[in-house]
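Training component of the fellowship. As part of building independent skills, the fellow (R.M.) carried out the full modelling exercise for a liganded target. The chosen ligand was pyridoxal-5'-phosphate. The inputs are recorded below so that the supervisory panel can assess the work.
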Amino acid sequence: MLYGKPSDEENKYLSPIFGSSAEGRDIPKFKLNDTPIEPREAYELVSDELLDEGNSRLNLATFCQTYMEPEAEKLMAQSFEKNAIDKSEYPRTADIENRCVNIIANLWHAPSEEKFMGTSTIGSSEACMLGGMAMKFNWRKNAQKHGLDTNAKKPNLVISSGYQVCWEKFCVYWDVELRTVPMDANHLSLDLDKVMDYVDDYTIGIVGILGITYSGRYDDIAGLNKLVEVHNQNTDFPVYIHVDAASGGFYTPFMEADLKWDFRLKNVISINASGHKYGLVYPGVGWVLWRDKQFLPEELVFKVSYLGGELPTMAINFSHSASQLIGQYYNFIRYGYQGYKAIHTRTHEVAAYLTQELRETGLFSIVNDGAQLPVICYSQIPDKTHEWTLYDLSDRLLMKGWQVPSYPLPADLSQTVVQRIVVRADFGMNMAVDFVQDLKSAIDELNNAHIVFHESEKPKRYGFTH
Ligand SMILES: *Cc1c(COP(=O)(O)O)cnc(C)c1O
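Fellow's submitted model of the complex:
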């Protein structure tokens, strides 16, 4: 009967969502509920659960993309179910990955007389594992050739103390000693006066960082290349450079095209970057490239049959969605060189504006002004009249929805507490002006709070020096 009284079953579907049984009981959180619930109820429950999550667009802590164009989202949603590793089932996707590797090789000036290799990854962490492993395998091969006792000592990797945690993971997972070159107040990136002191016959390579996570500063890769060039002339155990360009790899080529940090430098043999940072794709894509196949040991390349031929694969992960690759390719063709440049130029201008405003408060000492990577990092000018710290300011900003982290700088500089703003493509000038207003009122509120802390709490909260 078409227009009869609804059955019980139909009633269930017609009932208002907040009159439904799912909303009327506590769904178990740590074991499966026994029976299914309706999709619309499940949707409401999960989306309500996420209501008070931080708003990603107001998250000024992350380098990861928080906006993509609707057309990109549509394409990505259309390819969620495709497994990028099934290269024979999805040859177009495999081809798109290959085109991306070529586009990036071109962007990073891979020399035409050498044969570059590269792959997509889940992010820079996986890319760094691969870059590190390639260096370790190559070092071992060369060490054995020259009769070095490879069991006498752990091989080591040299990097500044501003390294991202993925390098610590690499060293733990693959049993390599992490040799960190300390940073100090005068060296807020790799210290070129000291770095070669850390290199010996057991060094698998040196990592230069194009965009230190903590501060946004660049290592001087060209300077490092010169030092390595000299070193390699007098040894059977040459070292090479891997550039961790997680954030700079898709920024510097557009903003400082003349800065030499990439394959234009002879001793830079591999580079990684995160597609989901300034490559402008949602989280889940990274890249690693070697300037020539001689630097990627064959043992790390596995063959997968591909439409009758053989396609090499060298990633650590196997199954993952093709969406991120499709999103990366969309951005490449959609924006082109000039489009990326326009977006990054605007991002850069916002960073300059924020730095200016922060300076004008007279309260902060700028550690990184965003002139290179659009990351602004600042400490508080010590002043006894201040009743508040950067941690308090972070709390205040969070009350207005902004997530701006405060943390100590890495080893050897850990007495300096900084606050960091990562300016991303989707942080426009209008949002920046709003942010500055909120920042100023947060400061006013803190200045006028007259909060009296118990004396014993003070060393914890105020106990840092500039
Ligand atoms: C973000 C970052 C990483 C890790 O990258 P993921 O893509 O998040 O895995 C590694 N190194 C540096 C310098 C970074 O900034």
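The panel noted the following from the submitted structure. The mean pLDDT is 91. The two ends are 79 Å apart (CA to CA).
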